[in-house]
Structure formats: C-alpha cells, structure tokens
Amino acid sequence: MTVTINFDALRTGVGTATLDYRQLISAGDARRLACDRKLIPVVLASDSEPLDVGRAMRTVPLAIRRALIARDGGCSFPGCGRPPGLCAAHHVRHWIDLGETKVGNCCLLCPAHHQQVHLQGWDITIAGGRVEFRPPRIINPDRRPLTNPLRH
Ligand SMILES: [Zn+2]
Ligand SMILES: [Zn+2]
Q1: How much distance in Å is there from the Cα of 74 to the middle of ligand 1?
Q2: pTM of the model
Q3: Ion ligand 1 — residues with CB under 5 Å?
Q4: 25: CA distance to ligand 1 center in Å?
Q5: Ligand 1 center–CA 103 separation, angstroms
Q6: For the CA of 133, the nearest ligand
Q7: pLDDT tens for each residue of 5-45
Q8: Who's near 3: CB < 8 A, 6+ residues apart?
Q9: Cβ atoms within 10 Å, residue 144
Q10: Contact in structure between 107 and 90 (CB atoms under 8 Å)
C-alpha cells in the first residue's frame, strides 16, 4: 500500500492523503501510518513533484526494534500490557520533523495507544531508560507525567 501526501500536510497533520485506489484519509492518519515507517509515503512538493524524502525512508531496523523490546517490554503506554508483537515503533519526534530513528527517539505502542497518542497530542520523553507520557491538558490540566507501572 502506498499513501500519497503533500509535504506540508504530512508535516502539520492538516489536510488529506490518498491511498491506492484513491481512497482519502486524513493527514493525521497518514502521519501515524508513516510514523514507524512500515508504510512509506510518496511525499509531494507543492508542484506535485515527488520529493526524495519519502523514498529515503526505511523501516525501523531490527537492532533498534530489539533494543526497544528490551527496554519497553511491550506497549509503553501507562497501564497497557500488550506484548511487543502487537506494537509499532513510535517516533517521539516524527522523522518528517527530522527526528532520528534511534532508541532514544522511539518507543513501542500498541495500535490503540499509537492512535491515541497521535490524535490527542500526548508528549513523550525518554530519559534514563524510562518512557514518560505527559497527557494533554484536556485529560489532566497539570499534565503530570505518567509511566507504565507494568514495565518498570
Ligand atoms: Zn507514531
Ligand atoms: Zn497500548
């Protein structure tokens, strides 16, 4: 499957993208699908010429995925017990925003929590081998960071 999207739409998450057979999806969904690089987007410049950025992307290397499994043990979202096999490698700083594919910039998230993090705008920080989740203000006005007690 390919997703075709304009560079600004992929960067901002605002707008639409097209799948094979021209189905429309939201730019936010395209951003999430492209996050762990299982899906390589065809990124278009404003003149609809494909940009190299999409082609240069590869999936998360196995060594990084193994390191994430060793650190996170499965979905890293607070309270989630889903195993690594169900999880994608979420880029804390998206590669489209020049975030690197490295252990310090990725965490494992199950499909439900991957969607939730992208849709609700949870902030994630990784320090000292712990993944901390800062909820959006609408969920917790103090934005007190949470970790997954099942993993630490
Ligand atoms: Zn993600
Ligand atoms: Zn989860």
Answers
A1: 15
A2: 0.83
A3: 35, 90
A4: 16
A5: 14
A6: 2
A7: 888 898 899 999 998 888 999 999 999 988 887 777 788 87
A8: 17, 18, 19, 25, 30, 33, 34, 39, 41, 42
A9: 9
A10: yes
